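Handout, page 2. Input:
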Amino acid sequence: MLRLLLFVEPKPLPEHLFRNRYWLDFPLRIFRQLHRDSPDLFEMHVAVPRRFLDGVRSEQMFQHRIYSINEVAMANRIHSKGHTLRDVWISDFLGSTDSELQQMLDRIVCNSIPHDLDWDIVITFGEECRYSFASTAMKINFETSPFSRPPFRHSFFMDHCGLFRNAAPAKWFNLSREQPEFSASSQQVSLSNGIRQAAVEMLSHTERRLPFKRRYDRYLLLPLQASNYSSFDAQAMHLRISTNRAGGTSARDATHTQLDHDRGRYDSQIDFLLDVCSQVDSDIGILVTEHPNVPSIDTSNRFAHVLRGLHEMLPNLEYLPRAKSFSSGSFQLLPQVDWIWTIASNIGPVAKFLGKRVGSPGDSHIAFATDASDLDTLLATHPQTAEADIDPVFHWMFNHYVMPSHKIEEPEWLTQYLMARFRAVKEQGFNEIAAFVPTECDVDDFIERRPSTTTVSVAGLQAMETKIELFRFRTRQRLQNLYSKTGQQSYVLVNDTAELESYRHIGCNHVMATIYETLQQMGFRMLYRANAPTDMQPDRPAPDWVIINGEGTFHHDAARAKQLLEMALAYQSRGSKIALLNSIWESNAPELAGSLPSFDLIAVRDGASQRTLAEAGVNALLTPDFSLPQWQPLDRDSRRNRQGLLFTDSIVYERALRLFDASVHLEGTFCLLDHRQLAQYDQDGCFKTALQPLGSLDFLIHDSQIDRARVVVTGRFHVAMACIALGNIFLYIDSNTSKISNLCNDIGLPVELLNVTSLVDDCDWKELNGRIREVSTAFETLLPLIRDYRQQGMKRIADVFDQLKLNRS
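Output:
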């Protein structure tokens, strides 16, 4: 029986934390099928970072063979040596990790795993296992291969000696193509020729899906180079800066970036991008695309500013953001470009295989799949056709190295393959290419014959949006026809945040639900929503009421606040009564309040806003946020059963990331309240981290994560409101306004105790942990204040809607 260990790399770096979740889920599926179909061949073990223990404890195949690794200890050790996590990650990528530090991290990992076990096979995903406990094992690392985008089926590399790292072949390029192992048989040549023929045929129709206006006869594609992504920085830093050349064209002389060539290497991918673009003649178009899985450059003002500046200097540079609507935009552009120059994208090997001219700097990690190591040489070549000879290395790859994922998920095939690989490794040695046994796949194993369901054209997206809008329009018309047959009072709702892309989180949904439900019970009928002046319907009779939901808008002189007030006044001029409800009023110029005395009803959700408006001569009622009625408090016994720490995000970007860091160090759960994709940038504006939602507070109701948590730490006002409603222990950090502190002051809660903004900003996790214990101890004494606020608040909300009813005639 072979002893298998599933090992999830304990990278204590945020951008790896989310990848690691997939690194665990996919191998778990493989282990389940091996356990089910070959129980007498393999004994299963697993070693995971401590935060993933809950994901494997229920797996019966492991029984007691589950080991946890303390990533927090690793992070603390790195910091104690004066390093940052990002620095260590880049050093590891460049192969220059501090040996003493590496030994210390190795000890932490090895001490987490039994010393008396010898492993036959260690399986990893995304990062090969380089820890000493596995020195005698056959190590198989799963990596997504370059041939994983349409028209190719999803596939992996299953490597046992570190041939493949960082999503592109990295070590085996130096192996001579003339070695016997790379001598292709007629069967191998036939397979790779068939794959290329099918792929070229399917890609030949992509021009209709992603066209661009051709302003130049020839185009150079820089795939993904408009992605502000940390691994691209590391790859650029690995390269040597090209030398300035005499005799360049005037366009080059005018735009060439003044780099310090004495330092030898680039500081970032931006340096690399500037240098490359400065070397391209002005009569050649340059296409740049984004990475499909990281936030748009438009979310980073600094990076977008650099790109805009570059475009001003180089009119032939074209950025194609719509390519990101495709799961493989750069692939779709291949038939329309002449050359590819890349240091980072998997499209390099694929383009080379498909017969395109590809270039990359000489010491790039994709140098094996290139025709040139400098731009001059690449651009001097004529566009290549798919009839060109296939490099022998690709014959070998498709017969031994590229593993279609559907084959991996066939239990019988995988069992036989693993056993054959294990025997070959023992016979051939760990570092021999010959140990990669034939996979015995055919053309259809590699080519996706059906249209890709993940590739959506821009036209397709627009058609889908049109259908959605048509559905909404018909629904509104049907409701309006129904309401027109009754004698109910009518209203138009302005600023329906549940419908706005920039809001649309659970707090907004709860606020709008209270407004809809209460007004319906009172006999009001909604004519329509108006989120912009274009939504107003001047050709129809004016409604009895126009109600502005003030949530998230009336602070810091927001342009939208002025727009919403003007919309209400336009209705008032036609005879409608107007109301501003559920609002705050903070840091606005006095002029913004000038029209408020003409409103028929104003209600704000905190005392500070009420006082501010009173100073401006405006009377406003005080109510809690309208989300309050949507939650029902738990009884004392239910609250006693809560366990664990829950950290949520914040509307303030940087603080959302700090809360994520806190969840890692204090071993809590992190959730996004909405469906934003968070991205982290370093002090130079370079992309560092993409945070995908590990969980989402889609419904803050019983049995949700917030109900189960013992303590909640949040940067979200509506999560604080939920905690008030449900009797949860909570701490908070400041949001984009003072709304959470104002809420606590209205209740009488100690802001100086609950507000932990400075601790989170300073990353003082030890002190934060102490504050959490302190609040947990004191919170029972605060519950009477919270209960009183909740009871009085429900009455105040009802009173505001009664005012609408009393004043409707």
